[in-house]
Amino acid sequence: MAYRKFTADYIFTGTNMLYRNQVLITSEQGVIEAIVPLAEAGEDVEKLEGILSPGFINCHCHLELSHMKGVIPNRTGLVSFLIAVTQQRQASEEEILKAIRLAEQELYQSGTMAVGDICNTTHAAPIKHKSAMAYYNFIESLGFAAGKSKGRFLLAQQVFNQYNSLLPQYTAAIVPHAPYSVREEMFALINAQAAGKTIAIHNQESPDENMLYQNGNGDFNRLYQSLHTDSSGFTPSGKTSLQTYLPWLEQAAAIMLVHNTFIQQEDIDHTKLPQYQHQDIYFCLCPNANLYIEGTMPPFNLLRKNNCTIVLGTDSYSSNWSLNMLDEIKRVQHESAFSIPTAEILQWATINGAKALQLDDQLGSFEKGKTPGVVLIDNLVNQSITTKSAAKRII
Ligand SMILES: [Zn+2]
C-alpha cells in the first residue's frame, strides 16, 4: 500500500501541538495511519513549512444566504440587520445557486471538512450532494406570531423531510432559530423530535434578547412591528433568554449555543446545573459576524475560565466578509491580544467542532483510521498565525 508522509514545523493533532521531527503518515486516500518520529519514517517525507492541522469544522453557516455578500451594511445592530435580511434575501434561483456553489468551493479550498449549515430551504441540497465536505443540516423553525407555532413548525418539517430524502447520508435536525423568533409552544414541538440530535440555536446575540425575556422591553418590539408579527400573549419569564428556554430542550443529546455575545456568568452557571448533565453544551463563536453586525466580541475569556467547550463558525455571507475558518482563528488571536494558545483555538476549529456535529468518528483529529483532511497553515511567527498566514488544503 502506498503512503504519504508529511513533516512540518508543527503538527497539531486535534488536541496537541507536536514540534519538529514528527511525521504524519496517511494512505493515498488520506486515511490516518500514524504519527512517528522522523528517524523512523523512512524515505519520501514531504517537508512543509507551517502547522499541519486536521481539516476545519465550520459549525455555523447559512450557505443559502451566500448571495447576500456585501449587501447589508456593517454595524447596524441585530434588529436592523434582521429586518434587512428579511427584506433583501429574495433573489433569482440562478443567483442563489451560483453563490452557494462559489461558497462551497471557498469553504473546501480553505480547508473546511464539515459544515453545520442552517437551512430554511432546500436550495443548497444538490450542491451538498456533490460536495467533498460533510454536513449537519439544521432545519430552522421560526415564527413568533401568536397561534402560529404549529403551522410554522410543519413548514420546517416539510423541509426536514426533503433533506432526509435528498441527503440521507447526513443528519438533519429541526432547530429553533432564536429565542426572540420561537415561542414555548414551538420549542415543545422541536424538543419532541430532538432525541439523539445536536440542536443549534442563535443565543444572546444582542442585549435586547435578554430584555425581551426579563421585562418584555427592548428593540425586538421594533422587529415585530416591522414584520407585522402579533407578539401578544408572550409573557416575559423575568429570567434571561437562555435560562428560560434551556429547560425546553431537555430531549436533545447536545445543544450548540451560537454567538453568545451577551452571555454572562449566571447563564454559564445555569448550563452547569445537574438537570443538564445528560447533555453536551457547545458554545459556538462567530467573531467576525459579531464584528460585522454589532461591532462586539463574544467573551472568550469568560467562557475559557469556565471550561466551556468552544467551537467556531463563520455564519453567512450576509454577516461576514469570508467563509474562511482561518479568518475566524485570526480574529480570535487578534481580539485576545494573542493571549490564547494557538493549539487551543485550533482545537475549537477541529475536534470540538467535529464532536458538536457528531462527526468525530471520522473528522477533527489525526487519529488512526480517520479521514480528517490535512491542512497547512503557513507564514507563522513563532507558533502564532499571522495576518499573512493562509490555510491550504494538502489532502
Ligand atoms: Zn446564523
From TrEMBL:
Name this polypeptide is given: Amidohydrolase family protein
Entries under SUPFAM superfamilies matching the protein: Composite domain of metallo-dependent hydrolases, Metallo-dependent hydrolases
GO MF terms, alphabetically ordered: hydrolase activity, acting on carbon-nitrogen (but not peptide) bonds
Keyword Hydrolase: yes
Organism, scientific name: Limnovirga soli
Gene3D superfamilies recorded: Metal-dependent hydrolases
Amidohydrolase-related domain mapped to chain residues: 51-379
Keyword vocabulary terms for this entry: Hydrolase
The keyword Hydrolase is annotated on this UniProt entry: yes
